[in-house]
Design brief:
Layout lengths: L7 E5 L5 E6 L5 E5 L4 E6 L27 E2 L21 E2 L15 E6 L3 H6 L4 E9 L5 E9 L7 E7 L2 E3 L6 E4 L5 E4 L5 E4 L5 E2 L4 E5 L5 E6 L4 E8 L3 E6 L1 H7 L11 E15 L4 E12 L9 H7 L1
Antiparallel strand pairs: 1-2, 2-3, 3-4, 5-10, 6-7, 7-8, 8-9, 9-21, 10-20, 11-20, 12-15, 12-17, 13-14, 13-16, 16-19, 17-18, 18-21, 19-20
């Protein structure tokens, strides 16, 4: 019998929810739940988990899964009658058996295409016609790629306007030892201060209290340096001009039923997003937003790590 890894496997996950397991030949893997179209695991070829999922996450509809990569659509944040961060993260997606051609540069067979269309119930709370296609792929080197394509399928000439984020929860050894590079000197909207606009002053972002900021007009690459694990996450993004940085810290952590009291120390959300300026599509138009995550060893030792080098050599 061949010992070759099955690149794509559909199986049952927690509470019987369906999930897809992606495996790359060198040993990296990812898990995607059809509930939420949500990545809940991404492991490197040593089997180390790179994403954070709360030990108290509730894998039961209609509650969104706390951790991994929830998809915020059709809104990020809390506006109007829609639930916070929209409804894509608590709908059951379908496997897309006939996706339109995907210009892709990966030779990987470890990918899955999912699709979400509005139900009649959805049309009552958000009366818009769309097709949301999501491809989750593992690259040969273990990189995790998410590509979203959202098309306005209105037959009534109705525009489609939305905001969006990949709400990625990274697993970190200790939040007080982590720094984020690539967002310095940029403007951000501070959600803890009524979305007031400020300019980032530090030469890198470090953490010693709650943070909830939307950085605007951000570069296509952002690095998260985890000194203790000697690991750097590199986020590359396309079509997503903003970046949300979030950690709830101790008080908020204690207030969340599906989040452990001390778990804030071991996670950081850095989210590729389109929030400040909503995206509007005319009927027939399609938007694409992509993020690629890689985890590279970082030779951080006492001196400063040159952020340019991290971003170039990755």
């Amino acid at each position: 019998m061949s010992s070759e890894r099955v690149p794509v496997e559909l199986c049952k996950g927690i509470n019987g929810l369906e999930k897809v397991v992606l495996r790359e030949v060198r040993g990296s893997s990812a898990e995607v739940y059809l509930y939420g179209g949500q990545v809940t695991s991404w492991k490197n070829d040593h089997g180390e988990e790179l994403l954070f999922v709360s030990s108290k996450a509730i894998f039961k509809p209609p509650k969104a899964i706390r951790g991994g990569i929830p998809i915020c659509f059709p809104q990020f944040g809390n506006h109007g009658s829609l639930e916070q961060h929209g409804f894509a993260r608590n709908r059951v997606w379908s496997i897309d058996v006939d996706p339109p051609p995907f210009p892709t540069n990966t030779s990987s067979r470890a990918f899955i295409d999912l699709i979400l269309k509005p139900s009649e119930e959805d049309m009552k709370i958000w009366p818009h016609s769309y097709e949301f296609r999501l491809r989750v792929a593992l690259g040969p080197g273990g990189d995790l790629m998410l590509t979203s394509r959202i098309r306005n399928t209105s037959t009534e000439g109705k525009p489609l306007t939305f905001t969006f984020a990949y709400h990625t929860y990274f697993s970190v050894s200790d939040i007080s030892e982590v720094r984020v590079e690539g967002l310095e000197t940029l403007d951000y909207l501070d959600n803890l201060q009524n979305k007031e606009r400020f300019t980032e002053q530090g030469d890198a972002i470090t953490f010693e209290s709650e943070v909830d900021k939307i950085y605007v007009s951000t570069p296509t690459k952002i690095a998260i340096l985890d000194h203790e694990k000697k690991r750097t996450f590199v986020i590359r993004k396309d079509g997503l001009p903003d970046a949300v940085v979030w950690n709830p810290w101790d008080k908020k952590a204690k207030a969340m039923a599906d989040f452990g009291d001390d778990e804030y120390k071991h996670m950081l959300c850095v989210e590729a997003a389109a929030v400040e300026k909503p995206i509007t599509l005319k009927p027939g138009e399609e938007w694409r937003g992509r993020q690629e995550l890689s985890a590279v060893p970082s030779s951080y030792c006492s001196g400063q790590l040159d952020p340019q080098k991290v971003l170039q050599c990755s």
